[in-house]
Structure formats: C-alpha cells, structure tokens
Amino acid sequence: MIAIIDSGGANIASVKFALERLGVGSVLTDDVNVIRSAEKVMLPGVGAAPIAMQRLASAGLIDCIRTLEQPVLGICLGMQLLFAHSDEGDTKLLGLFDANCKAFTPTSNRSVPHMGWNQLAFQQDHPLLAGVDNGAHVYFVHSYFAPVTSQTIAECSYGHDFTAIVGEKNFIGCQFHPERSGSVGARILQNFLEMP
After folding, report:
1. For residue range 67-94, what is the model confidence (pLDDT) as tens digits?
2. Closest CA to 156 of 171, 145, 167
3. What are phi and psi of 85, to 5 degrees?
C-alpha cells in the first residue's frame, strides 16, 4: 500500500492518477499509523513551505516522517520540505538533508517561477534513474530551490545550478513533477515503486 501524506498540496490528485496509471492503489492520509504501516510513502506538495509545515505539525506528522524507514518520495515542495530550512517565510523544515532552500532571482530574460520542461544532469547512479537517459526532460514549477550537495542525484540549471533529485538512505526527493513528466516521469515513479 502506498500512503500519500495529505500536505494540502494541489498536485495530490495528479499523483494519485499517475499511480493508478501504473496499476497501483494509494491512500491519502494524515494518520500516523497508516503512514508508518505503508509499504512506501509519498510527500507531494504545491504551495508555500510555512503553510505545509504548519499542516504537518498540526497533524502530528513531523517526528513520524523523520523516523520513517520505508522508501519516502518527496515531490516539488515535498522535496524541499526534506531539507533543513527555507527562505520562504524563514521556515524550519524537516531537516533530513542538511541544506537550505533559496529563492530564484528573476531577471529580464528569466522569470520566476521556473516553469516548464528542463533537463536532468545526473550526478551519481541511483535506482530511481534506471532506464532514464541523462539529459531527459522533466516538468518543473517552483520559485525556491535546494542547492547541489553531496546527496544530489541529478541537478538542473535555471540561473542557478540546483538539486533536481536528492537521495540518501530511504529518503528521496524530486523537485520536478514526475506525475506530469510523461514517460520519463512514469519510469521514475515505477522505479520508486520497485525500490526495496
């Protein structure tokens, strides 16, 4: 069973549909016991980091998420929540990755948010990338980004180089939307589902 943590994100329905297309059922929940007993956990998110963290805190999910032992996949804001801090609202995050999320700087020829298709540049081998080509295009919508660190699996560039996929132990994050990234995104989701 796949538990989708109810973080209030606008992309939750599309994540559920993407899993259904892969023949996998899921449950949207903020129940600690359901999340702990799930085979895999997904943390989607679209919106503001302070609001998402308040929602997780009010549901009593902060310590629950931090101590999960099964594979966990954060998507978009859900990936950023795995980091230490966000400049968005000066927000303390879950602290599973030791780096801070910063805002993109708009310029005359580069608007914010970063919205649209961009290419992955692999930084290390990882089961999430099985069958995915280096340079594959995926779909992004975000105004804040995590820097490239030693836990970066794939990076991308939009004025700044930033982490597109992060991973360590059982925690993984995708800054882009795999559920909206066509066959590449479907393969990444399938790889996550197949992780032990």
Report:
1. 999 999 999 999 999 999 999 999 999 9
2. 145
3. -155, 150
Could you tell me which CATH number the domain at 2-193 has?
3.40.50.880
Which of 17, 43, 39 is CA-nearest to residue 29? 43
Residue 71, preceding peptide bond in cis (omega within 30° of 0): no
Give per-residue pLDDT as tens, 163-194.
Answer: 999 999 999 999 999 999 999 999 999 999 99
Identify which of 185, 5, 30, 190 has the alpha carbon closest to the alpha carbon of residue 82: 5
Tokens found for residue 141: 């919508």
138 sits in which H/E element: strand 137-142
C-alpha dihedral over 89, 91, 97, 99, to 10 degrees? Answer: 50
Annotated catalytic residues are 76, 177, 179
Go through 37-49 and write b for each residue having 16 or more CB atoms within 10 A of its CB, e for each that does not.
ebebbbbbbbbbb
